[in-house]
Amino acid sequence: MNTAAGSPPPPEGAVRCGVDTVEIARIERLLADTPAAELANFFSAQELLDAGDGPGRTASLAGRFAAKEACVKLFPREAALGAIGTIDFSVSRDGYGAPTVSLSDAAQLALGRNRFSAIQLSLTHDRHQATAMALARPAQATPSFAARLLYRVLPLRRQVVLDNLRRVYGEVTDEAEITRLAQAHYGHLGRLLWEFLWFPWLSRARRMAMVRVDNLDALLAAHAQGKGVLILTGHFGNFEVSTSAGLASFPEAKGRFHFVRRPIRPEWLDKLVTRRFRKVGFGVLPKRGGLEAILDRLAAGDLVVFPFDQHAQRKDGVLVEFFGHPAGTFRSLAVIALATGAPVVPASSWREPDGTHVLRFEAPLQAVEDADANEAIRLSTRAFNRALELLIVRRPEQWWWVHRRWKPWPKRKRAG
Fold first, then answer.
1. Which residues have CB under 8 Å from 39's CB, separation 6+?
2. Distance CA 3, CA 52 (A)
3. pTM for the predicted model, two decimal places
4. For residue 140, what are the CA distances in angstroms to 7, 177, 182?
5. Which tens digit of pLDDT belongs to each residue from 264-321?
6. CB–CB of 64/43 below 8 Å?
7. Would you say 17 and 134 are in contact if contact means Cβ atoms under 8 Å apart?
């Protein structure tokens, strides 16, 4: 069931369906008329490999192309905006021969933003045409009893949380799911507080055992460029636990990571957090007035961590889109990336159901160049926000929804 923009969200548990039929002769002409190097505009390398070179190649690719088109139809808004296309979906078969689909980052963002958990495919073809059906299964938050209780008895910033969730998900899901997400978020906040008190008392072996580091090769490849690394992150999961224990697994990195952060209120809490970071080997750099220190660390080949998901005032930021709404966003990361050429590596952390904390690094990004310096900053900052969006929608209950991310943007004062 497709839901048009502006229409009521689908009922709870609804499945969205996309169907497409492709004439096999059309794919035959495409294969005959398209140079091999340009087929990558239509099919992934894996799809072309799986189709082989035998007589069934055309029918196989026709079925896959129909499935890709069906997947695109699951996301009419993103397709209309040009945010996704058929190349963002790659169709293969699992060990049992059932069709499966792999999603690009853009498609993963569309999936999470629409509150879907997965896409299931069904393919068939005859001598003349191939038909595919794609079903998008809805995601549903499952808050625990403790989470629901915290949501009820601790209403601190509850309206901010609900307003933020409605801003991001209000057009694609119902109010019941918004409430469940808010409840799950309060459960996450409760566990954060408990872990903050409990974590320092654990042994080093216990700390290391409770954290897993994923895709470290992406970070190492970025660092190998020799320009230092800018790590783009936000308030995900329990970043203190995941980064502290993760760093303990790589003692050679001690003293090479530096957090850019604003002071926390009250002052005693800021001193406590700073002391704990430095104890495990993290440097701390001030967000305001720390540019020279950041450039020095990058020149030395160090890694600088930028929490990037808080509101920036006009004097420090640029107004760019974040989840479809204008948001004041710090320009400093784009300015530094453009000036130094340092790669930007997105990173997030989350807590698994079994209590394991995961720290994951993504493929490095490069700042967007443009002849107009202000436009380069704007385009780069938008790209960094988009990377954050993908990290958030993967596990939305573990992001910092209590922050007022979309504050009003003041008009520029006129001279005189």
1. 31, 48
2. 38
3. 0.89
4. 20, 7, 12
5. 777 777 777 777 777 766 778 877 767 889 999 999 999 999 999 999 998 889 999 9
6. yes
7. yes
Spatial neighbors of 243 by CB under 8 A, at least 6 apart, are: 257, 282, 305, 349, 359
Assign 3-class secondary structure to the chain.
Answer: CCCCCCCCCCCCCCCEEEEEEEEHHHHHHHHHHCCHHHHHHCCCHHHHHHHCCCCCHHHHHHHHHHHHHHHHCCCHHHHHCCCCCHHHEEEEECCCCCEEEEECHHHHHHHHHCCEEEEEEEEEECCCEEEEEEEEEECCCCCCHHHHHHHHHCCCCHHHHHHHHHHHHCCCCCHHHHHHHHHHHHHHHHHHHHHHHHHHHCCHHHHHHCEEEECHHHHHHHHCCCCCEEEEECCECCHHHHHHHHHHCCHHHCCCEEEEECCCCCHHHHHHHHHHHHHCCEEEEECCCCHHHHHHHHHCCCEEEEECCCCCCCCCEEEEEECCEEEEEECHHHHHHHHHCCCEEEEEEEECCCCCEEEEECCCECCCCCCCHHHHHHHHHHHHHHHHHHHHHHCHHHECCCCCCCCCCCCCCCCC
The answer to whether residues 380 and 338 touch, using CB atoms and an 8 Å cutoff, is yes
Q: Residue 322's beta-bridge partner residues?
A: 325
How high is the pLDDT of residue 8?
Answer: 44
**pLDDT confidence tier of residue 145, bands split at 50, 70 and 90:** very high
Contact 71, 89 (CB under 8 A): yes
Q: Which two tokens stand for residue 378?
A: 């704007």
- Distance, in Å, from the CA atom of 100 to the CA atom of 344, rounded to the nearest integer, reads 31
For residue 31, give the nearest of 68, 49, 58, 54 by alpha carbon.
58
